[in-house]
Automatic annotation (TrEMBL):
Keywords: Cell membrane, Glycoprotein, Membrane, Receptor, Transmembrane, Transmembrane helix. It is found in: Cell membrane. SUPFAM superfamilies: Periplasmic binding protein-like II. This is Uncharacterized protein. InterPro entries: Insect_Ionotropic_Sensory_Rcpt. It comes from Loxostege sticticalis. The chain crosses the membrane at residues 277-295, 307-326, 366-389, 549-573. It comes from the Eukaryota. It is a multi-pass membrane protein.
Length: 597
């Protein structure tokens, strides 16, 4: 009766094989394995929990524990084998004492059998000796085992099995139960970074909550950890550490790896070597580090710009042909018609056009043509000037070019800058070349002094770009237009961290996804991000598109149509005037004949 229920439960847990922790006779083990094999499940018996060490970490592993008298197998199980990667099923009258102190993320169920099955037979005989033919009214209940670090293990309704299969009835309650840690205390390891009691009057916690502090990346990470612990109904305590990722004990990476803290308050980039020590749970902050300097203008060899898009050029050709046709139709003399296209081209090129047609319509057409060409030239000239003002900056683009340039270098004094780039030997040839050529004993400078060096125009200062943005009010608009960057660490996403494969990793990831779904994470980042302001000249440095000149084209077309209307009126007026002259001439002739007679 039990075996089909056990198989269905493990299939629901998506496991491919099962370890059975029980000390049975070989005959009972063979019978048990045979019954499982009939239902398509692989089973391995073991009387020693060390067999779990052979389980791969990339797949879910089923573990069936069958309690026996005087058995202490659970006491010998490594604590890591109670993580969510191991799907446990406990067959016991009550929750074993050893399960009250296992991991929070454990995934365990216990078989709740209401019939007396443990009295007259051994458990092995009862399980193996049952037939696969089951009464349709039979129900076997499975309860969820929830383990809290302070309250211990508790048993809750979860699912039942019948001949129709496994019916999970309380899975949502199971999930919600694990997302509420019941005010458990989490330790947040945050690197002190730029904080110092000499420079800031207040505690480290006040420093992290101070909106005027310039260390936005660290404040973003700490703020995100506060949102996380609030989302899972926990409490937090700040644990200051000296370094971010140093291998020394007093670093975020070290305390998380040793489980001395549950959350890292300083966001870190994902690197392969760090994955051995920490898990990355929530993406939070973009970091970009490099040298900043003021560039000079380039030579005239880079003065070519393309202010107009292809659509604008084609529209200019179309409106030019339209105006030429209108000019030709509005011309009354043969020589004016022949010179219509040349007149349009000459005016387009802002040359003197002497072929202005006689008559109101011809003059109106020429006025429309002149205004249109004038505005097109104005667009073109404005686009060229603004593009040249916003581009045309020269200077090194790579670290090797910076090493060969006239610029001195300096850097912000930061532990990750020291330990990852400038105080260690790297395999980055360009960086090593730069260090050999330019690095001096005065390389590390305070950011306030570094900004002054950048303003002087002779030094490239190395820091996180976002840190420099707070000081851009000291730069003139011309300086901002000249500002150039050479990356050492291109823009990359940094993540909040926790203990690698820790017992809290799953709920932190779930809470982090919830922060993004609700918009809380993006709101936190937007409150702290300061973007580089563009120089005013760069605001005009955009190519003119078709839609920019669309109103001009529409008005010009209307003007051309109006010239045709004026031509029609002019023709009607000319015919009317000619008719009147004929009538007057005929009347004069009649008067003359009368007088002669």
């Amino acid at each position: 009766m039990f075996i089909p229920a056990l198989v269905d439960l493990f299939k629901y847990k998506v496991v491919g094989s099962i370890f059975v922790l029980a000390c049975w006779s070989p005959i009972d083990e063979v019978k048990f394995v045979k019954e499982f094999s009939r239902l398509g499940m692989s089973v391995t018996f073991a009387c020693d929990p060390k067999i779990l060490d052979k389980s791969p970490d990339i797949n879910f592993q089923g573990v069936l524990y069958i309690e026996q008298n005087n058995s202490n197998l659970l006491d010998k199980v490594n604590r890591k084998h109670f993580s969510h990667w191991y799907k446990w099923l406990i067959i016991s009258k009550e929750i074993p004492d050893a399960l009250h102190a296992v991991r929070y993320d454990s995934d365990m169920a216990i078989l709740r059998e209401e019939i007396e099955v443990f009295d007259n037979e051994t458990l092995s005989e009862k399980i193996v000796g049952t037939s696969l033919t089951v009464d349709p009214a039979t129900k076997i209940f499975f309860d969820d085992i929830f383990v809290h670090p302070e309250a211990g293990a508790t048993q809750h309704n979860w699912a039942y099995w019948s001949p129709r299969g496994l019916q999970v009835t309380r899975d949502w309650q199971r999930i919600r139960r694990r997302m509420d840690v019941q005010k458990y205390l989490f330790r947040i390891a945050a690197p002190v970074a730029h904080y110092s009691e000499d420079t800031y009057k207040g505690s480290f916690a006040e420093y992290l909550e101070d909106m005027t502090v310039l260390d936005s990346g660290l404040r973003c990470g700490f703020g995100a950890t506060l949102l996380l612990i609030e989302a899972v109904n926990a409490t937090g305590v700040l644990m200051p550490v000296r370094y971010w990722v140093s291998e020394e004990k007093n670093s975020t990476q070290a305390v998380l790896s040793s489980e001395e803290a549950e959350l890292g308050g300083g966001p870190l980039r994902i690197l392969k070597r760090r994955m051995e020590f920490v898990d990355f749970i929530v993406p939070m902050w973009f970091i970009s580090v490099g040298f900043t300097y003021l560039a000079e203008r380039e030579s005239s060899s880079n003065m070519y710009v393309e202010p107009f898009t292809a659509g604008v050029w084609w529209s200019c050709l179309a409106i030019g042909i339209t105006l030429a046709i209108a000019q030709r139709m509005a011309s009354r003399k043969r020589e004016d018609k022949d010179g219509a296209f040349i007149a349009v081209l000459a005016t387009w090129l802002q040359q003197d056009a002497s072929a202005v047609s006689d008559g109101l319509s011809g003059r109106w057409t020429f006025i429309v043509l002149s205004v249109c060409s004038m505005l097109v030239h104005a667009y073109y000239t404005s686009a060229i000037v603004s593009a040249l003002m916003s581009t045309g900056r020269g200077g090194p683009k790579t670290l090797r070019e910076l090493a060969d340039s006239r610029y001195a270098i300096a850097s912000e004094d930061h532990d990750f800058i020291r330990d990852a780039m400038f105080n260690v030997q790297t395999n980055w040839d360009e960086l090593e070349y730069l260090k050999k050529r330019k690095m001096t004993s005065k390389f590390y400078q305070d950011i306030h002094y570094g900004v002054q060096l950048v303003r002087q125009g002779y030094t490239a200062y190395h820091a996180e770009y976002h840190q420099l943005y707070h000081y851009l009010y000291k730069f003139s608009d011309i300086d901002i237009c000249k500002m150039q960057h050479v990356d050492t660490i291109p823009e990359a996403m940094t993540w909040l961290t926790t203990t690698v494969r820790g017992q809290w990793t799953n709920i932190f990831k779930s809470a982090g996804a919830w922060l993004y779904e609700t918009g809380l994470a993006r709101r936190l980042v937007s409150q702290l991000q300061i973007k580089l302001p563009p120089c005013r000249a760069a605001l005009l440095a955009e190519r003119v598109t078709f839609w920019d000149v669309a109103p001009l084209l529409a008005l010009t077309t209307l003007g051309a149509i109006a010239s045709l209307g004026l031509l029609g009126l002019e023709i009607i007026f000319a015919k009317w005037a000619k008719k009147d002259s004929r009538v007057l001439q005929m009347s004069n002739s009649e008067v003359s004949l009368i007088v002669i007679e």
